[in-house]
Specification:
The chain is an all-alpha fold. The protein is built from 22 helices and three strands. Helix 6 packs antiparallel against helix 7, helix 15 runs antiparallel to helix 16 and helix 16 runs antiparallel to helix 18.
Length: 488
């Protein structure tokens, strides 16, 4: 009996010790959580979107009052991360906090949110008097509220309401000349153009964009200049106005690239313009630069650049490397261009025609159909080059049959094509008009010519240009506080 009593007392003591240890750990955890205030931007914490927006608004106001541009840039980056989580109730509460319920801007923006109120789930979020924004309203905060509502309307696919909201924001912005950072106006210009493009009325704002670009140039707002320049080029290219786009691009005031994203867009638009104007060498350089400088996460932008770069290389008589078509997350999108490249490489006109008809909808959507029509001549030349290398002498009738020429007089067409290829130096052969033969010359040693030296020189020039661009990119952001002190 004594032994059983000892065992029961021992187990009871062990249970008490375990309970005390668990209670001590729980109490310690609660104390640690009470002492440490979690940050809104800590990845381990899931704060409310409203609190995030409040802190972003305070960050913008602080950056505007102290002329710290870096805070406003950081606020814009944080806004883009939470844009998909915005709701009507949260935006309404933020407007009450940032603008006040009696503000004119608040009334305008609240009218757009009130239209979306039926589709949104109501959240019981009330603003106390102590939480209301009591400081003097800065212009940056008004523009930020316009930008938030505009982004929300675009994400909700309310394009007509987004058009009206963006137009009001641009009118409001024109009356402000004391914006600290150029990041807010440039973002507003971008979504202003995007709302009209999604609504199908992009041509309506071309005059406004030109006026805004002139104002940004006079005020030396470089980031707005870059953004508006790209928006105008996109506006022209959207309606296939390539001549007007080139005239504007050539006469526009050149500024240093402050934003890598805007510079990549500029290179893409420049490459498209040069391609249409038959300046393939410059177009290839611009498009490849856009691919190399673009962010890794911008997969859609890289796909678009690669599509145009592939077409330009084919027009130059070059065959893109196979690794271009096997890049991660791009294989499916570049599949039509891979089959097109294969048809050009083989020089089979019939295969080229089949691929062009098979993916005609894709090429029309990418706006490369006209360029692919130009490729037919390259396919014929490639096939003719293969024939010339395979036969020392061949009749024009056999050439027409091998090239699948479907015209009424294939032999005469083959004779014209062969004569032009010989004149341009595409093939090293002679044409016997009497017997209608193509007589190929003996293939010489390519290393006895200057072609290897020219190719090596072009590669060295490309590497040197890349090095110079990298050196130019190594610079520090501008210190606006020092500039203002010097000006005063």
């Amino acid at each position: 009996m004594e032994f059983l009593a000892f065992i029961s007392v021992f187990y009871l003591a062990m249970v008490v010790v375990l309970i005390s240890q668990v209670f001590f750990k729980m109490n310690r955890t609660v104390k640690i959580e009470d002492q440490s205030t979690p940050s809104v931007y800590d990845s381990s914490v899931d704060p409310s979107i409203l609190q995030d927006l409040k802190e972003i608004a305070s960050m913008i106001e602080s950056g505007a009052n102290t002329s710290e541009v870096s805070k406003i840039y950081k606020a814009m980056r944080l806004t883009m991360k939470i844009r998909r989580k915005l709701k009507v109730s949260i935006l309404s509460t933020l407007l009450n906090y940032a603008l006040g319920p009696v503000s004119e801007v608040h009334a305008q923006l609240a009218s757009y949110l009130r239209q979306q109120d039926k589709d949104d789930t109501q959240v019981d979020v009330e603003m106390s008097e102590t939480e209301a924004h009591s400081t003097h309203l800065v212009p940056e905060l008004e523009i930020y509220c316009y930008l938030l509502v505009l982004i929300f309307l675009i994400d909700q696919k309310k394009y007509n309401e987004a058009k009206a909201c963006s137009s009001e924001s641009i009118v409001r912005l024109k009356n402000m000349n004391n914006i600290t950072a150029d990041a807010l106006p440039s973002k507003l210009y971008f979504y202003y153009s995007l709302s009209y493009e999604l609504a199908g009325n992009l041509a309506e704002i071309r005059g406004n964009l030109l006026a805004l670009y002139q104002t940004a140039t006079v005020r030396h707002n470089k980031l707005s200049q870059e953004t508006l320049l790209n928006l105008l080029l996109r506006n022209y290219l959207h309606y296939n106005l390539y001549d007007q786009a080139e005239k504007f691009r050539s006469k526009a005031h050149c500024v240093d690239a402050l934003s890598n994203q805007q510079f990549c867009r500029y290179l893409l638009y420049q490459g498209k313009i040069k391609t249409i104007q038959l300046e393939y060498t410059e177009a290839k350089y611009s498009l490849l630069q856009a691919v190399q400088k673009s962010p890794v996460i911008a997969v859609g932008f890289q796909i678009q650049c690669n599509k145009w770069a592939i077409i330009v290389q084919l027009l130059l008589g070059e065959i893109p490397e196979r690794t271009v078509f096997t890049q991660k997350r791009m294989e499916k999108a570049l599949r039509p261009y891979f089959e097109l490249t294969n048809a050009v490489r083989v020089g089979d006109v019939e295969l080229f025609r089949t691929v062009a008809e098979k993916f005609s909808s894709t090429f029309s959507q990418d706006r490369t159909s006209n360029l692919i029509v130009r490729l037919k001549h390259n396919v014929i030349r490639t096939g003719l080059r293969n024939i010339s290398a395979s036969y020392s002498r061949i009749s024009l009738a056999d050439i027409a049959m091998k090239l699948n020429l479907d015209s009424e007089t294939p032999v005469d067409d083959a004779e014209t094509i062969v004569a032009k290829a010989i004149r341009d130096g595409a093939i090293d052969a002679t044409l016997d008009h009497a017997n209608r033969w193509l007589v190929s010359k003996a293939t010489g040693d390519v290393y006895s010519t200057n072609e290897p030296q020219i190719a090596f020189n072009s590669r060295i020039a490309f590497c040197l240009n890349m090095h110079n661009e990298a050196v130019r990119a190594l610079r520090f952001p501008q210190n606006l506080r020092n500039k203002q002190s010097v000006a005063t």
